[in-house]
Amino acid sequence: MSLRVSVAASAIGCAIGIPVGALVAIARFPGRAVVVVVLNALMGLPAVVVGLVVYLALSRSGPLGHLGLLFTPGAMIVAQTVLVTPLVAALTRQIVEDADGELGEQLRAMGLSTLQRARTLVFDVRFSLAVAVLAAFGRAIAEVGAVLVVGGNIAGHTRTMTTAISLETQKGDLPLALALGFVLLAIVIVVNAAAAALRSHAARRYG
Amino acid sequence: MLPILIKGLTLLAGGRAVLDDFTAEIATRGITAIIGPNGAGKSTLLRALDGLVRPGRGTIAFGPGGRSPAPRRAFVFQKTALIRASVVRNVALAVEAEPISAAERAARVAAALERVGLAARAQDAARRLSGGEQQRVAFARAWARRPDLLLLDEPTASLDPAATEEIERLVVALRDAGTKILLVSHNLGQVARLAEDAVVLASGKVAEHGPVDRILKHPASEAARAYLKGELPWMSFAGVS
Predict the structure, then answer these.
(1) Coil, strand or helix: which one is B23?
(2) Which helix (H) or strand (E) holds B7?
(3) What pLDDT digit, counting tens, does each position of A8-59 carry?
(4) What is the complex's ipTM, to 2 decimals?
(5) pLDDT digit string, tens, across residues B51-101
(6) Residue B239: what pLDDT?
(7) pTM of the shown model
(8) Contact B60, B9 (CB under 8 A)
(9) Residue A203: closest CA among chain B residues belongs to which residue?
(10) Label partner for A112 (CA 20 to 30 A): which of A102, B33, B143, B211?
C-alpha cells in the first residue's frame, strides 16, 4: 500500500512538477521572482495541513465530495501528489536554471523556442533530476500526517507502513513497529542506491 | 542580403557602456576580424548582431540600404555548449527549429558531420570528445544551419595548434561557401591568415576599420597601436608613441 500510493503520487508529481519547474526556470515573465519564492516555500508544506485541506475538499460537503474518494487510496494519492509536486517543481527549477546558465545562450543562438529549450535542458539534466524524483518519493513514503488524515488508516485498505508504525507504537507493540520501520528504511535505501548507481553510470557514459 | 550596417549601437551593462555609439559598415563577403582588448565590447557586438542581447540605442540593418531581412545566422562560442547526449543529437539541435522535413534535417546533420570529419564519431557521447573535436561539433552545428552570417567568438582560444589549424580550415571552407564571417580573436597570426579587414574596438567604439595588413603593420589610431603593442587598456595612452 505504501509503495503503490507513494509511487503513484511521485509519478504524477513529476509529470506536473518537471515541466512546470523547467518553464519557470527559463521563461521570463512578470512576477517570476514571486513564483520562485512561492515554489520554494511550498517545498516546506506541512503534510498534516495538506491532509486537512484535501480532507475538506474531498469530504462529503466539500467541492470534490461527489467523487467519494475520502478514506480511499485515491484520496491518499491526491494528498501526496499535492505534497510532492511543488517539491519536484522547485528542485527542477533550480537544476534547469543552472543548466540554462551554461547552455541557454547557445540554444537561443540556434533559434530554439522556449518549449524546445525547456525540453532540451530537461533532457540534458535528466540524471540530476533523479534527485528531484527521489526527494519526491522519499517525502511521499516517509510522511504520515497527510495519509492518516485523508486515508483514515483502515486496516487492509488505507493503512500504510508509516500509519501502521504510528499505530503499533501507540498500542505498545514496539517490536512490530521497529520491524516495520526497518522494512521502510530498507526500501528507501534500495531505491536511493539504485538511483546512485544509475547516476554514476550516466556520468561515465556522458560526462 | 548583406552588407551589415551598424549605426550608433549603444548597450549599457551595469551602468557602463559596453558598446558606445558603435557605427560601422561591414562588407558583404569574406572574413572581418573584430580585435581589441578584453572588455572592449567584441563579444557583446557579436551577441547584438545575433539578437541575443538587445541594444539600448542604435540600429543593425542588412543589405543595400539596410532593407533586407535579417540573414540566416550561426554562432560559435569559445566554449562549446554540449548536452549530455550523442554527437549527432547535439548537431541535430542546430536544425530543430528549421521549418524543414525530418528527412531533410537528418540529411543536413549527416552532411555537416561528414564535413567536419566526425561522421565516424556520430554516436559517441559529445562531452567525452577532446576540446578540438568538441569545437568541430560546434562547427557542424553552424554548417548544418547553412548560415549567411557566421559569428565566431574566439573559436580557437582554448585549442592546441593542430586543432586550431583544423578549425581554421573549416572557417575558410565556410567562407568559400559564401558565408560572411565575423571573427573575434586575440590570435593576431590567425587574424592575418584569415581576415581581409579588421575592426579595432576600444571602449565600445570603433577605433579603426581597414584592411588587416595595413592595421597590423601601420595602425593609425592610438588604441590600435596600444593594443598591438600589448599595452594594458586601462593605462593611459600618453606613453604610447
Answers:
(1) strand
(2) strand B4-13
(3) 999 999 999 999 999 999 999 999 999 999 999 999 889 999 999 999 999 9
(4) 0.86
(5) 999 988 999 999 888 888 889 999 999 989 999 999 999 999 999 999 999
(6) 43
(7) 0.87
(8) yes
(9) B84
(10) B33
CA–CA gap between residue B50 and residue B52 (Å, rounded): 6
Q: Name the H helices within chain B.
A: 42-49, 87-92, 102-115, 131-144, 161-176, 188-194, 212-217, 222-228
- Give how far the C-alpha of residue B60 lies from the chain's centroid of Cα atoms, to the nearest Å: 16
- Cβ–Cβ below 8 Å for A202 and B84: yes
Contact A110 B96 (CB under 8 A): yes
Extents of the domains making up chain A = 2-206
Task: Write the DSSP symbol of residue A72.
Answer: S
Q: How many other C-beta atoms can be found within 10 angstroms of the C-beta atom of residue B25?
A: 12
Q: Name the nearest CA neighbour of B164 among B182, B149, B183.
A: B183
Q: What is the pLDDT of residues B113-162, one digit of tens each?
A: 999 999 999 999 999 999 999 999 999 999 999 999 999 999 999 899 99
Residue identified by cell 537561443 is A108
Taken as a whole, chain A contains a residue count of 207
In chain B, the residue whose alpha carbon lies closest to the alpha carbon of A110 is B94
Which residue type, as a one-letter code, is found at position A4? Answer: R
Residues A136/A45, Cβ–Cβ less than 8 Å? no
Q: What is the pLDDT of residue B229?
A: 83
pLDDT at B238 (0 to 100): 46
For residue A146, what is the enclosing H or E element?
A: helix A145-151
CB contact under 8 A, B77 and A105: yes
Look at B93 and A112 and tell me if their CB atoms are within 8 Å. yes
CATH of domain A2-206: 1.10.3720.10
User: How confident is the prediction for chain A on average, in pLDDT?
Assistant: 93
> Chain A contact for B50, CB < 8 A?
yes
Contacts of B157 (CB under 8 A, 6+ apart): B78, B185, B186, B187
Residue A10 identity: S
Q: Name the residue among B52, B75, B84 with its Cβ closest to that of A206.
A: B84
A102 chain-B contacts, CB cut-off 8 A: 81
Give the closest residue to B72 by CA, choosing from B154, B167, B143. B143
Residue type at A34? V
User: Among partner residues B80, B93, B128, which is closest to A110 by beta-carbon distance?
Assistant: B93
